[in-house]
UniProtKB/TrEMBL annotation:
This is DUF927 domain-containing protein. It comes from the Bacteria. It comes from Enterobacter hormaechei.
């Protein structure tokens, strides 16, 4: 509406009539829609940011589980990773709260970030349905609260754009 008003007021400069102004606005809007679609770009950015972190640090900052203190130490440990017994099983990343909230969800509200990942099938919430952290498997005899992440499932359907 603002662009249309500006074009109509600029008729003296452009020489365009009202219909030409509306056509120009419609053309610009259609081009924008083709480029960006109607989906929520923030959700797409959250998924991409999470996958980028897991791709970059999944094997360097996540210690393999089960983990022994005799294994080589991991610099800037972000959590633990566990691969299932079958090739088709996903790698599960037990992610520490600090790494999730300060690094993976950087520049976003961590609660909203976790909700988007849960809806995308990338975060496994606790069975109680409250919050987004679960208990980790026992590591050196103790369990801690972690965010349980995986890569986006291959059968995940993208929202319509």
């Amino acid at each position: 509406a603002i662009l249309e008003a500006a074009l109509l007021l600029g008729e003296v400069v452009t020489g365009w009539d009202a219909q030409t102004c509306r056509d120009a606005i419609q053309h610009s809007y259609n081009a924008w829609l083709r480029e960006f679609g109607t989906g929520n770009k923030e959700h797409q950015q959250i998924i991409e940011q999470t996958e980028a972190f897991l791709n970059a640090y999944g094997f360097s900052r996540f210690a393999p589980f089960p983990y022994s203190s005799a294994d080589m130490p991991v610099k800037d440990l972000a959590g633990y990773r566990q691969k299932g017994n079958h090739d088709s099983d996903p790698v599960i990343f037990y992610t520490f709260r600090g790494a999730f909230e300060k690094e993976i969800a950087q520049n976003f509200n961590p609660t909203q970030f976790a909700e988007v990942l849960k809806n995308a099938g990338m975060l496994k919430p606790p069975a109680s349905g409250r919050g987004y952290q679960r208990k980790s498997p026992r590591i050196d005899g103790r369990q801690i609260n972690v965010y349980v992440l995986t890569f986006r499932p291959e059968d995940y359907d993208e929202p319509e754009e």
